[in-house]
Write a sequence for this structure.
């Protein structure tokens, strides 16, 4: 019997600290430095070639996604291409304990991925905001939409409005192209969970390229709405948060998706 050859995905691991290079390399991943020159030459950096590195405080991980789209994607020949961060990693197996980092991080493409186009993290529920906290922070949202008092009526749109500004998601969706506007609005209004983290693995660079061609023109249009004079983490990174909701919608609409566990472990605190 011929032994099946393992396939190792090409995983880009996005970091903010130059000291993490060795740790990321030991995992077999490609170290990526975000947002400037604070990295040695071994790193892939998002401020070379055609880039939006200066927008990293607002775009988060997407300053690198833009870079790879414009500078590297066409040259990648790997069968599987994916992304993680220095705090979130793909688990080795579908039943890997997500509270144990060592020996549980993805190395090779699992057999379960064979029949899928894209891998996304497990969904998070958006309904669990405690009412007392919700009223203190988002009173206007409840006054405008009293149905949100009832947990079962809450949706992705409610959660986005709560954390990132009431009405901002609707305004952004209005700028989407005809192919996605109504479908994405239906998605955020009729779902109570989504695949968080701006992480994915895809078996084709064509799928990734198509995604970038959908997301970046939209985010650039949104700049005319929100600009860059934004204060506070949850407002300042609004472009990354818009992308985080759009990503699972788009991939589920345009590809066959498998959900996979993500392990949380901050490499800055792990020796």
């Amino acid at each position: 019997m011929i032994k099946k050859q393992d396939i190792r995905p090409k995983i880009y691991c996005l970091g903010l600290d130059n000291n993490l290079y060795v740790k990321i390399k030991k995992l077999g991943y490609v170290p990526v430095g975000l947002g400037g020159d604070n990295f040695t030459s071994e790193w892939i950096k998002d401020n070379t070639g055609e880039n939006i590195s200066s927008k990293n405080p607002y775009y988060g991980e997407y300053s690198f996604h833009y870079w790879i789209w414009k500078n590297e994607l066409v040259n990648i020949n790997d069968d599987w291409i994916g992304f993680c961060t220095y705090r979130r990693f793909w688990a080795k197996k579908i039943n890997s304990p997500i509270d144990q980092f060592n020996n549980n991080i993805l190395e090779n493409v699992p057999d379960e991925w064979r029949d899928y186009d894209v891998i996304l993290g497990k969904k998070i529920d958006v309904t669990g905001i405690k009412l007392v906290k919700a009223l203190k922070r988002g009173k206007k949202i409840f006054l405008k939409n009293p149905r949100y008092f009832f947990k079962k009526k809450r949706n992705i749109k409610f959660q986005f409005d709560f954390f990132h500004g009431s009405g901002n998601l609707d305004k952004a969706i209005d700028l989407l192209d005809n192919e996605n506007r109504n479908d994405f609005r239906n998605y955020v209004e009729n779902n109570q969970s989504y695949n968080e983290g701006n992480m994915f693995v895809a078996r084709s660079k064509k799928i990734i390229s198509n995604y970038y061609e959908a997301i970046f023109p939209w985010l650039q249009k949104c700049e005319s709405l929100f600009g860059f004079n934004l204060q506070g983490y949850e407002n300042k990174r609004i472009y990354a948060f818009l992308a985080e909701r759009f990503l699972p919608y788009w991939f589920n609409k345009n590809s066959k998706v498998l959900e996979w566990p993500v392990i949380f472990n901050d490499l800055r605190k792990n020796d």
Remarks:
- The chain has one domain: 10-126+189-269.
- The domain at 10-126+189-269 is CATH 3.90.550 (Spore Coat Polysaccharide Biosynthesis Protein SpsA; Chain A).
- The first strand starts at residue 10 and ends at 15.
